[in-house]
Every structure is written in C-alpha cells, then in structure tokens.
Amino acid sequence: xxxxxxxxxxxxxxxxxxxxxxxxxxxxxxxxxxxxxxxxxxxxxxxxxxxxxxxxxxxxxxxxxxxxxxxxxxxxxxxxxxxxxxxxxxxxxxxxxxxxxxxxxxxxxxxxxxxxxxxxxxxxxxxxxxxxxxxxxxxxxxxxxxxxxxxxxxxxxxxxxxxxxxxxxxxxxxxxxxxxxxxxxxxxxxxxxxxxxxxxxxxxxxxxxxxxxxxxxxxxxxxxxxxxxxxxxxxxxxxxxxxxxxxxxxxxxxxxxxxxxxxxxxxxxxxxxxxxxxxxxxxxxxxxxxxxxxxxxxxxxxxxxxxxxxxxxxxxxxxxxxxxxxxxxxxxxxxxxxxxxxxxx
Length: 345
Fold this sequence. Notes:
This protein is of the alpha+beta class. The protein contains 11 helices and 9 strands.
C-alpha cells in the first residue's frame, strides 16, 4: 500500500461496483460521497479513503481479479495483527469481488517524515516492531522463502534490467559468471535463520503513528525466510539513502536488540553484517528487475528514476567481497556497452 501518486477517481466499472458494495455496509456508517483516492501502488490494487458518521476515516481497497487476490492480505493481517504490531484491521470484506474495508493508519509515511532530526527515533521504532514480529514467527504460518522463489527473483535482473532496460544480451561466459554470483548469494540467504519476512519493509510502507508506531502496510506477500531481509529493506531503502555510518549504527542496534530478544542472529557482528550485505544484494538485484518491469510492462516509468540509488547499493556491495567481484566487473562492462537511457546507472 505504498503511497505513490494517487490515481484520479474515474467513473470506471470497478469504482461503481465498489461504491455499490460500500452502500451495503452497516457498520461503520459510511459517507459514500466522501470517497476519494488515498493511494496507489506498484500493483493493480487501488485504495480510497472515505469518512464515517463518527468523524473517523476508513480505507477501501479495490483488488481486481484475476490480477489480485485479497486472501493473502487477510491471512497475513491476522498473523501480523496477532503479534501486536500495528496493521490495518479488516472491517468488512467481499473476497469474491476483491473489496476490503480497513481501518485507516493515516497518510504520513516514513518517507514523508524522515529527516536528520527524526530518522533515529523512527528507525528505532521500526526495528522494535520488526523484532516483535520476528520473535513470534511460526514456520507453518507463511509460505517458505525457498531457493526457487529467491532464484526467480534474481532472474528478474538479467531478464528485465539487462535484457529490456539495457537492451543487452549476455554472452555464455557472462551468464555463467552471473549465475556463480547468484549461487553464492543463495547459499548465504538460505543458510540464514528463518523468521517472518514482510518483503517490503521500507519507508513507503511504514506509516507514522502517534501510538504503536509504525503502522505497517503492503504485507500480503509475506513469507518465512532469511532474518536479515526486512532489516536491509529498511536500512538500504530504494527510496531514501543514509550515510553508511548511520546504517551500521542502526544495524548494530538491531543486532544487539535481536540477540537480547532471543532471535537466532549470527553471534559475530561481522558475520551478521555479511549476511545483511548478501541479502541486500539479492534484494537490490531483484528490485532493478522489478523497476524495469514496472516501466516497460506496466507503463510506470517513474520507477526508472530510482534505479541509480539501487545500482549504487549493488556496486558497493559487489566490490566489497571477493566472491562478488565478478558481478562488479560485469556491471562495469555492461555500462560501457549500454545505450544511453538517461536512467541507466
């Protein structure tokens, strides 16, 4: 439920169906005429805000089939909500039509609020919420973040970023070199202790709340997987960058609190940092592919503007570890041969 540029409410058939469904809801009493865009995200989902008779506001989700399915959202909302973190409560649902009515966690994202004076407290709150979530992980509750899924995500990088965005084809030697790096990443990722993984725990999906901060959105793709995944999503965010000294400080604070809470983090902080880096590289390679796919398949070319920061993360990590050096060399070679897109590196 990332707060990207809101869609204009248009008189489309889905909207009319949503309005009709809202008229059938008795509790809470809704002011249907107040329906207005709340946010849009990288999927086909749309969100609308509307007022209630008692002066509050609520959120209506439109998740059209066959592209979307609200059942994973409902499942994870129950699981995460039971841990005590702040997620929207489901007030009404129509699974067949793909409509949900949710409590409103407000319109102030972490991205809106983050600054030099606010970042430390906001990130400490987000870290505490993440630990609260992780310590209550149950392996049977969520799908496994297994090798097949991690591998499919990595494949988005050559398919969409290299092939579609850079318009380049890898040689057999280059493909073999890239796959060797992928194998090193996967070996590390799959060796990490598994916990609940939100999969997009970052500044656009965390809402600033007066109590119970942060509000957590966009969790429907949650899985059971590597313990560093959400931490690196938070601290090496594709939409906001912090000095490496700050990132290290926040990472160590998480590590100390996680150990104290009994989470199975690596007891050596340097080894934990390596896990954090390797997990971050898997995520950022995936993101490069996703941003290219959003631009070229879905017409959402604003994401191309976020590619340079993600590529900076990728290159810095690839240059720090011997087994990842082939990736850095490959990217440098690709940059030399890529057409000038304005957004490439």
